[in-house]
């Protein structure tokens, strides 16, 4: 037994022990912001996200300089890594896409966003990745078409293919940036019986239409006569589905229609018909990214309906360097890029830590 006043002999610190103490949990908690979904949404509106993305482009960021996204197939879905450096900010989103999660009552998209200091490269914050994605995805779409909305004089008429979270979030984001309420919003569903509570399926019996139709929109079935009627009136068409074939015919929409195509993001899938791409001005985030991932673009080029030289860049549209023709359709094909998460996350962190 050692005496009560015994002291252990002093021994040199093992290699790296000081570093391990510096990286302890208490250091992490005191030096990092941990932002959950509620906090993110409390400091950032959809319009704020739109403005954050626009500001990054106006300030000179070129999406062509963005870091590469990595998509890894895994047993139950996909693992996505999306790193980026914008201005003085550095960040990476780590997300999983679980294909079986809806059957378990879980979200398809889950993950986190990790931010770093631009000078020291030390971690500075962790954000809820799904919440960040929910904000930035429709914001990207709206940034790409906002200059084209000037061609419409009155309240907008929207048609939205897809009744999931992306469909409704696109409506909410557009509503947050336009100056007056929509004339009408119509969702298109291939399975109306699966529509959630935030949209209402419009049957032939008017008494079945709920009160939320007024605030959110009505729903028609894909392929129905009602769909043909609303498409001919639509100012803006949002395609937010995993479809692999065109959702509508090219002659179903007006010559000045504005189309967002964001649901399909593989080179073999498309939501927009090639004939519409042929007569439209087509905007993409980045040419090389579009040629790798944007099936609407890849397939239209393969069919001879479009050429690489026809593509307009999102940054040029936002900066006013691209001339838009209001007599032609405009199609914005977006697949999502890492810089977009970081541009929004930087503003979220700044506001949350004031």
Major beta sheet summary: 9 strands, parallel
Q: How many angstroms does the end-to-end distance come to?
A: 56 Å
Second rung of CATH, namely the architecture of the largest domain = 3-Layer(aba) Sandwich
Strand content: 15-25%
Gross morphology: globular
Radius of gyration: 24 Å
Number of helices: 14
State the domain count: 2
By DSSP, the count of extended strands is 15
Mean pLDDT: 86
In CATH's first tier, which class of the largest domain applies?
Alpha Beta
Any idea what the CATH superfamily of the largest domain is called?
NAD(P)-binding Rossmann-like Domain
- Helix percentage: 25-40%
Strand order of the largest sheet: 9-10-8-7-11-12-15-13-14
What is the fold-level CATH name, i.e. the topology of the largest domain? Rossmann fold
SS-based class: alpha/beta
Element-level helix/strand string: HHEHHEEEHEEHEHEEHEHEEHEHHEHEH
Q: What are the segments in which pLDDT stays under 50 over at least 5 consecutive residues?
A: 6-29, 198-214
